[in-house]
Batch of 4 targets.
Target 1
Amino acid sequence: MEPLGYIVHGGDYNPDQWIDTPEIWDEDMRLMKEAGINSATVGIFAWSLIEPEEGVYDFSFLDTILDKMHKNGIKAILATPSGARPPWLSQKYPEVLRVEETGIRNEFGVRHNHCLTSPVYREKVQNINRLLAERYKDHPALMMWHISNEYSGECHCEKCQKAFREWLKKEYHNDLNELNFKWWNGFWSHRVTDWEQISSPKFRGENHVSALKLCWNRFVSDSHISFFENEIKPLREITPDIPITTNMMGTYNGIDYQKLAKKLDIVSYDSYPPFDAEDPLEVAKSWTFIYDIYRSMGGNKPFFLMESSPSLVNWRDVNKLLMPGRHAQSSMLAVSHGADSVQYFQWRKSRGGHEKFHGAVVDHIGTNETRVFREVAKLGEQLKKLGEVTGGKCESRVAVICDWENSWATTHFHGYNNLRRDYFDECQKWHLPFSLRGIPCDVISETDDYSSYDLIIAPFMYMLKTNVEEKIRSFVKNGGSFVATYLFAVADKDDMVYYGGLPANGLKEVFGIWAEESDGIPEGREGTAEYNSKEYKTQHICDVIHSKGAEVLGTYTSDFYAGEPSVTRNSYGKGKAYYAAFRNDEDFADDFCSDLIKELCIKPSTDIIFPRDIIIRKRGELIFILNFTDEEKAVTLDKTYYDILSETDVTGILPIPENGYCILKQKEILK
Ligand code: GAL
C-alpha cells in the first residue's frame, strides 16, 4: 500500500449502537474533528442491522454515516461483518455454529464462533461483502477494507473433519502409506487404512501424534486463510484499488500470521500492552519485539495499529487506568517501530453490553471534558506533525527467526523439558540486546529471504523446514553470521527427527559440531556454563555437543558434561556459524550479542548516546526517544537536532522527562 503521507488517527466506531439517537452521530463528527480523528472503522458488528432478515437489506444507517464522515473529512475503514452474525442466521442454518473439540455444537452467542468451512456461512459472508462493495465502491470516504475481526479458533464439525481429510490427501499425495510413514504410525500400532479413521486431535481421542497436531494447526490456519480469501473475492473484483487488511493479535498462533500477512495489502495489529499491570519498561521492551514482528511480517513495511485502548480495558482480572500520558507514549512506541496509524478500541463507550466499561475516547458523559479525550486530542495534534514518517522503513542488518510453524512444533513434541518451552519468549530474549542498543532488528520466518542481513539468530529452531538447510548454508557461505541455539534443526516439517546426527544433515559441517544428547533441566537444578571467563546459568534445556572443527568459545562448568563445549564458532565459506548449546537467561544473550555486534561492526541507527533504559528508534529521518521509567533521563546528542514536538532546536545533553518522549530530526535534513 502506498504511504498516505499522514498518520491515520481513528478507531472502532459503532454508530449502529446509537441507531435510536442519531443526534449523537452529529456530536460524534464534531468531537472526532476536535480530537484530530481522521478515520473511523465502521460496520464491524453491524450485520444484524444491515440484513435484519435473510435477504432483507437496509443500508441507510451506513449510507448516512459514511456521508457524514466524508463531509467531515473522516475516512472510512469499512469492515466486513463476518466476526459476529445475526441470530436469524444461526437459527436458520445451525451448521454455521462452531463445534468444539468435545464434539458439542455451540449455541448462538458471543462472536467469532463460526464454522470455518460451512458453505452456507461462506456464501452469506460473500453475499453481504459483495453488497457492501457494490454500494460503497465509489464512496469518497472509503479508504480501506477491514476484513472481519480477529480471526481465531477452530471448528471440529463433520464438515471440518471432511475438509481436514481432503487437506491431508493433498498434503500426502493421496497416499496413506506416505502419511503412515511421515506420522510414524507404526508406533503404538496407529497405522491407518482408511482416511475416515483420521480426525482432528482431541483430548479424548488422538492427541499424541505430533505430526497430526501440526497438520491440524496448518489445516486450521489454511481454513482461516481460505475463509479470508472467500471474503475478499468480491472486494478485489469490485474495488481493486482499495487496500485490504485484517486485524491480528500479537503472537496468537492459531493462525500462521506470517502466511496470512502475505495476503494483505497492509498488516494490522490490535495492541493492548499491559502498561497498567506490569513494569512499564519491561512491557515496552517486549512490545518492541511485537512491533518488529508486525513490521517484518509485511516485508519491512509499515503496519496499522488497528486497536489500542486510550485508557483501560475491561478484560484483565483487574483493570487499572493508564496513567496520564501513557497512551500517547505507547502510541509513539508503535509509530517508531513502523505503525502508520494510531487507532482506538473504541471511539465511544457503549451504554450497555459486554464492553461498556472498556476505555474509549468518548466516555458515558458524552463530552470533550474528560482527561482521556484531552489526551487523545493532544496526541492527534502531535501525530499531525509526523506525517512524513509514513511509509518510512527501518533498514535492519540483523534478524531473529521467530517462526509460527516452529512455535507449534516446539509445543507438540514430548521430551527433555515438557514444562518450559516458551518459544516466543525465547525469541524475544534474543531480540532484546539489539532493541536495547537502538539497533534495528527484523523478526522473520525460517523461509523468509535472508539476503539483506549480516547476522541471523535462530533461537530454539527445532523444526528445519524443507530447503531451509540450503538457505542457511548459502547464507553462511556467502559471509553471513548465523547463530543457532539448543535443539536446533532436530525435526522436519512432519516432526520426524533427522537421521545421521544433529543438527540435521550438512548443518553439522556448517556449524562444525555434533549435538549428541540433550538434557532437560528441572527448575532448581540449573547448571552453569562459562563464556569469556564469566559464568552463566544453564536452564530448561541444554545440548551436549562435540566440536568437529568449531572453535570452542565456552564450556559447561557443571554436571557430568562439564568441560564439554557450550558455545562454539565455526568458519564456513566466508561466514561464521555459532552454536549456543544451552538455554540461558538475558545476561548471556546480551553479552554474546554484544560481542557479535562489535565483531560485525553493527551500529545503532543514531550516534546519540543514551542509557540502557531509554528506548531509541530511528524511522525514516525521525528519531524517537522514549523514557518508560519514573525518572528523568538524559541523552547526549551528537549534533544539533530539531525537536519536532516542541519546535525548538536542541543540542548537547537532552533531558527526557519521566514517562515521556521526544521526537527529533537532524537539522540538515529539515525540509
Ligand atoms: C479486541 C476486539 C475488539 C474489542 C477489544 C477490547 O480484541 O477486536 O472488538 O473487543 O478487543 O479490548
Target 2
Amino acid sequence: SEILYMNDEYTKKSRLLSRILRHRPDLFGVALDSQGWTDVDQLLVNVANKGTLISREELEVIVAENDKQRFIFNDDRSRIRAVQGHSGTVDLKLPFRTPPPALYHGTVRKFLASIQKQGLLPGIRHDVHLSATRETAMAVAARRGKPVVLVIETHPMVKAGLKFRRAENGVWLVSAVPPQFIRFR
Ligand code: HQG
C-alpha cells in the first residue's frame, strides 16, 4: 500500500541519516561541528547529490516519527544531529547525571565470557549504551539473537568515579562498565 511504501522509504532514509550523522559524514561531504551538529539545508543538498532526495517535510517526519528518536533539531531547526550512537570524535556536551540504581544492558550469550572478563566496552561507539528498562534492553539484544539482560549496579560505579550521561532519547551512556558492577544472574 501507499502508506507501507512510505514507511519503508522513511526507514531507508532514516538509516542513511544515521550512517551520515553518526559514522561517516565524510562520505557525503558533510561537516559535523565538534558537538555533532550540521546545517540541515546543506545536509539535504549533499544527500541529494549522492542520489537520495529527502525533502524538508520528509525530514521533519523522519525526525518526529523515528522509533528511537535518533535525531534532534536545534532550537531554530536550522541544524540537526544524531542523539547518540556516534563513532567519530564528537562531544555531545551532555551533562553528567545521577542514574537510577539499576540500568540494563541487553546482549547475547556468545559475548558473556568476554564481558565477564573485560566488562562492557564501547566497541566502535563512544560509550556503552545502557537502557532504563529491562524491556528496552531485551529489544536491543533481540537484534542479535536470544536476549540476555545484564543488570548494572550504578551507584557503586558512581562512588568509583564513573560518570553517566543520558541522551535525549533516554539511552544512558557511560565510557565502560567494569565487570564487578555487572550482575550476571
Ligand atoms: C557487546 C541500537 C564482548 C554488547 C540499540 C553488544 C542500542 C561485548 C555489542 C544501541 C563487550 C556492541 C547500542 C565485551 C560489550 N566483549 N562483547 N567486553 N562489551 N559487548 O551495537 O548496546 O538502532 O555497539 O553487549 O537499540 O547492542 O543504532 O551496542 O552486543 O540502543 O539507534 O558488543 O544501538 O540503536 O554492539 O546497541 P553495539 P548495543 P540504533
Target 3
Amino acid sequence: MSIDFSNWSNHKNLQNWILEMKNLCKPESVHLCDGSKQEFDTFCKRLEDEGVFKRLNPEKRPGSFWCVSDSNDVARVEDRTFICSEKEVDAGPTNHWCDPKEMKQTLLKVFDGCMEGREMYVIPFCMGPIGSKLSIIGVEITDSLYVAVNMFIMTRMGQKALEFLGQSGEFVPCMHSVGVPLEKGEKGPSWPCQPTDKKYIVHFPQEKSIWSYGSGYGGNALLGKKCLALRIASVLAKENGWLAEHMLILGLTSPEGEKKYIAASFPSACGKTNLAMITPTLPGWKVDCVGDDIAWMKFGKDGKLYAINPENGYFGVAPGTSMQSNPNAMKTIAKNTIFTNVALTDDGDVWWEGMTKETPEHLLSWTNKSWDKGSQEKAAHPNSRFTTPAKQCPIVSQEMDNPEGVPISAIIFGGRRASLEPLVYEAFDWNHGTFLGAALSSEMTAAAKGTIGKLRHDPFAMLPFCGYNMGDYFKHWIEMGQQSDASNLPKIFHVNWFIKDENEKFIWPGFGENSRILKWIFQRCDHKIESLDTPLGKCPKVEDLDLNGLNLSKETLEKLFHIDKSGWEEEIKGIEEYFSKFKDHLPNEIKDQLENLRKRLNQ
Ligand code: SAT
Ligand code: MN
C-alpha cells in the first residue's frame, strides 16, 4: 500500500519518514490529517460510534464529549520518561537516561507491528502562531483517534501547519502508539494502553525526536505539549539563547489603563490555569489570558524579553474548577470541549468535585460505575481534564496570535507550601531570582503518578520537563540575564498561595484575591512603591498591599509574611543537599546565592 501525498504535502523528508514509520508500525490504513472542522467532526463521530466518546447533552454543553481512560492510564508517568542524550551527564541527575542506541533498539522492537489492525493518523502541527519566527513545527504520528482530536484543539494543526512548513522546513518527528495492535475484526478495549512498566515516553535531544509508547493520556500522548514544547524546546532554547518554560502568561491592566505582561511558573495542578484567567476582585483591574501552561521567551531587539504561548488550547485540571474559583474557565468549557475522567450526570452533563456547592444525587463516575452522593470514592479522577479551545476563553488575549509575542515585565515562581514560604517577595536581582527558581519545592499533586502531598524539589516547576542537565539549565538562566541590561530584565517574584494554619486551613483566600498581589507586583515593576528588605527578598510594606475588604486579622497577616529562621536553616540544608546532586554543573552564581541567603538569615 502506498500513500497518496498529492494535495497534502510535497515535503520529501516528511514523506519518507511517514513511509518509514508505516513500514515499521504496519497499520491497516493511513490518514493524513488536514485539520478541517469536517475532519474533526468525523473523528468525533467515529469515537462516538466506537463507544469511546459520549456526546454530552447539546442543550447543556453543545459540541462536547465525555470519555474515561483506563484506570492505569490517568497521569504522566515520570518514571517511564527518558532523556536519551548521547552522554548520560547531559540528561543530568534529575532525568532518567538511557543510551540512545540501546533505546532505539527497544523502541524499534515495541513499535514493530504495533499499529496492526488500526489506522495511523498523521498530524502536522505548529507550536506557536503560524508564521512566527519563534514557532516550531512538529508532526505526530499516532494510532489514537482520541489523541488526534485533542491535538486538533491543543495546537494549530493540519494544512496551515503544512503550508508554514513548506517543502523543506524542519519539523520535530513525534511518534506515538498506544501499543495495542488488533487482530482482524477485533474491537479491542475502548481505552487501549500498556501497563505502566511497559510505557515509554522518550526524547532524543540531539536528534530532536520523540517516541511515546503505551499511554494515551495527556502529556504522555499529546506530544506537542510537554514532550515538544518543554523537553525538546528547552534543549533548542539552550542551544539558541532563549527560554522554554512551564509558565502561564497573562496581561494585567491597571485602572489607569496601563498594561504589563506577567509570566508565572507553578508545578502541574498548582493553579496556573486559575491565575492565567483570574477575575480580579480589585475594582478597575483587568486581566487577559495569553497562555496557561507554557511560555517560550526570547529577547527582542529592544532588550526586553518577549513571550509566546506555543499552545492553542487548554488541557486543564477539572476538579476544583467552579464559577467561584474560575468563572472564565467555566465559560470557556461551556461548549466544544472534551472531558476526560470527570463524572457524567444523569442529564448528560459533566460534574467533578468542587464544581457546585450541591453534589448531584447520582452520577456515572470516571470508573464508569453508578455513583451515589455520599460515596467514599471520588466521582471524578483528581487529574481529570478538559481539553478546550483557547479562543473560547472570554478573556483570551488579542495578542495570542501575535508572532512577536508580548513583553514580559515580571516572572513569578511559586509552589504549594503549607508553611515557610511567605505570601510574596521580590528577588534582589536576576541571579537571586534564578536561585529562587532553582530552589523551588512543592507538594506533589495528582498530575503525575506518585505520592500526593509529598514535598519535593521542583526547580522552575521544570523537574519533569527539562530536556537536559538541570544544573546546565540553571547556568542557562544566569547567562540569559547577561543578554540584556538590568533595567530591561523582568523582575522576579516568589509567591505562595497555599499557606495553612494549625488546623490545615488555607489562610489566604487565593483565586480572584490574588489580584491584590498582582497589583503589588505591577507597582513594583514601575518602582512606584518601595519594599522592605528581608533575608528572603524584598517584601511588601503592609500599607502598600491593597487588602481592602478582606478582613484579614493582624495575626493572619503576620503569618502570611512570617520568616521562620530555624525552619529556613533546615530548608537551606535541604537545598544544599539537593544542589549537591548537580556536582560541577551547579553554577557558582547559584552557590553564592545560597551562601548569601544563609548570611542574611544569620545577620
Ligand atoms: O498531562 S500533562 O502533562 O499535559 C498536564 C501536566 O502535568 O501539566
Ligand atoms: Mn503543565
Target 4
Amino acid sequence: MSTQEYFDQGELVAVLTTQPLDRTLDYKAPEGGCFLGAFVEVPLGPRKVLGVVWGAGQGGFDLNKARSVIRVLEVAPMREEMRVFLGKVADYTLTPMPAMLRLATRAPGLGDPPSMRKVYRLGSGEPDRMTDARSRVLEVLRDYGGLAFTLKELAEQAGVTSSVVKGLVKQGAVREEDSPRDLPYPQLDPNLPGKDLTEDQAEAVERLQVGQQTGRYGTTLLKGVTGSGKTEVYLEAVAEALRMGRQALVLLPEIALTAEFLTRVEARFGARPAEWHSGATMTERRRVWRMVGQGDAQLVVGARSALFLPFRDLGLVVVDEEHDTSYKQEDGVHYSARDMAVLRSAICGARVILASATPSLESWANAEAGKYERVDLNSRFGVAVLPEMKPIDMRAEQMQPGTWISPSLRQAVLQRVEKGEQSLLFINRRGYAPVTLCRACGEQIACDHCDARMVEHRFLKRLMCHQCGETKPMPDTCPSCGVEGKLAPVGPGIERLAEEAETIFPDANIAMLSSDLFGSARALKAKIEEIASGDADIVIGTQLVAKGHNFPKLTLVGVIDADLSLHGADLRAAERTFQLMRQVAGRAGRADKPGQALLQTFQPEHPVIRAILSGDEEGFWKAEAAGRQAAGVPPYGRMAGIVLSGPEVGPVFDIGTAMARNDAPVRDVGGQVFGPAPAPIARIRGRHRVRLLVKAPKGAPIQDAIVRWIAPLRLKGDIRLTVDIDPQSFY
Ligand code: ADP
Ligand code: ZN
C-alpha cells in the first residue's frame, strides 16, 4: 500500500472499483487532486463506476492513454484502518477485493450531492387573523422549541392541511428553510442516570469500563443467564465509549429485536441511535453511512453488515446473542460477523463484548484459553428466577395420531390460561406439515429444482420449497400416480400445531409467530409488541421467539419436540440443541411470576437432554469441548467447505474428483481432504452440488493452501466453486 497521502492533479492513482476485476485500475487524479482513500467516480468503458483511491498508480503503459477520475465524491475518504480491515477479511474469507468494497458501500446514492429539503420553524411575524387551525400549528412549533418540521410532519402533528401551514409562511408567522436531508443524529447523553445496578451488575460494568478506558483492543465474553441484565450492563460500556468521544456499534441478530432495544437506548441516552438493517429505507441507509463516516452518529444498532460501515473512531463493538447463527453470512462473502468484529476491533483499538446466555463453544474456548476476558452474571434481575425445567417422557403419554400436544402439556397450559398467564408452545418448523405424502403410491411431494421436500403452507394455500422459495398450489391429485384425494400431511409445523391448539383450547386467544407469516418487518414488530403487552393466552412460535424478546406475562414454555435438532450431520448439533432449548426456556418467568419449561422428548436420558435439564452448563461445554478436541474439529482444528455446483452432475463430480486427487497443497500444511460427496442438499435451484471438506490442524495456513489448490482449476461453462472458511452449517 502506498504511503503517499495526496495525489496532485494528473498524477497516476490506482483505483479499486466495485466491478469484478482482479486488480486495481490506473487513472489520472482529477482537477484539484485527491487524497488516498477518496471515494471517486471513474470511467470504465462507457460507464461510470464507484471506486476508492487505493494507492499510487502502477503505470507501465502509455500515460497519454490514461483516463481521468471523473470526480471525487463528497464523503469522508476511506480510512487506512478500513482499507487494512477489508484486505484482511478478503484474505481470510478468500473474497476478491471488489466484493469487499461492495460490502463496504452498501448505501445508495453515495455520490449524490447532499440534497436539500424544506423545513419549517417558528417565524417572527403575526398572522392577520387567528383561526383554530392556525393556532394549533403555532402551538406545536412552540411546544417543540426550536425544532424544525417537514411540511407533512407539521401538518400531521397539528391536525391541519398543509395549506394552513403555507398560509402562515406567507404571513411570516412560520419560517420556511432549506436544510440538508442527511442530518446528523441527535446527540446521545451518556451522563443521564442509568438504572440502579445490582452488586453483580455493578461489578461487571466496572470491569467493562476499565477495559474501555485503556483505549486498546480487548474482547470480553459477557455470559449472563437470560434476564440477568446483560443489556443494561453493556449499555454502560457503550456510555463509557461515548464519554471518551468514541463511537459504538451494537450488533443484534434479528431485526425484530430492535423495537424494544431502541426504546431502551432512548431511555438510557435520551435519543435514538442510528439503525442499520435490511428493513431500513434507502435514504436512512445513506444517512447512516455518511454520518458514521463524519462522526455524526455516535451509536449504530444494526445487523451484521453494519460492521462494514465507515466508522470514524470505533471504540466498542457489542455482539449481542453472539452464538446466533445469523451472524454467519452464507451467500456472497462468507464471513462471520462475530469473528470479523474481533478482527476489526484489533485493527482500530476497540473493545469487543460478546454477550450471550449460551455462548458458542468457540467463544467459551477462547475465554478458557485466556484470549478473551470473561464476565459472568449468574442470577436474574429482581425477583425473577430461572425457570424450572422438566422433561415430558413421550413414551408414557397417551397420544392420538396426528396430535403433538401431550396430555401433561395440555394440563399445564390450561392452568396458565385459567390464571391469565401466557404460555409459549415452541416448534422449530414453519408451515403446516413438513411432508405431503400420497397414501396411494407413497410419493412425497418434492421440489422440481431442489433435493428437498415441499412444505405445505396452509395459510398461503400453497406448497413451498424452503431451499429455493419456489411455491405451487396445493394439488388435489397426486402428481406422481394421479389418484385423487389421497394426499395427506405428515408431521407438524407451526400452523398445524396452532390448529391443534385451537381445538383443545377453544376459549384461549392464540397467536402465531413465525417469520413467514408477516408481510413486513414492521408488521412482525407490531405483533411482537402486542404479544408482549399480554394480548395472547398462547403463543405458538418458531425459533424467532427464542431471540431475546421480553414477554413479561409468559410463565410456561412447552417444547413440542426437544429431540428435533439432536440428530444431524452437523458437528454442532448438540451445541445448537443445548443453546436453543435453554434460550427458549429462558423466555419464561422473566418478571415477577416464576416460570416453567416442559420439554417433550422420547429420549430423556440422552446426555444433551440431561445437560439441558440439569442446567450444568460448564459440564456440558467441557464434555463437548473434549469431544471436539479428540476429533480435531473446530474450535480445536480448522475446517473449510468447498461446494462445486453446476447444471449437470457429471462434470461437477469430475472436478471434485480431480481436486481430491491433487490435494498436495492441503496435505503440505498437514490437512486432509474429504470427498467429493453429494452435498447434504444435493440440488438447489436446479444446480447439482458436490462438496469437499478440508480439515486441518489449528494454526495451519489453510487459506494459502486452498488458494494454491484451486489456482490451476479451469472451471468450464456454468460450474461454480465457493469456499466457506469455518463453515457453520453443512448443507
Ligand atoms: P438480558 O439481556 O440478560 O436478558 P436484560 O438486560 O434484558 O437482560 O434485563 C432483563 C429485564 O430486567 C429488563 O426488563 C431490564 O430492564 C430489567 N433490569 C435488569 N437490570 C435492571 C436494573 N438494574 N434495574 C432495573 N431493571 C433492570
Ligand atoms: Zn426448491
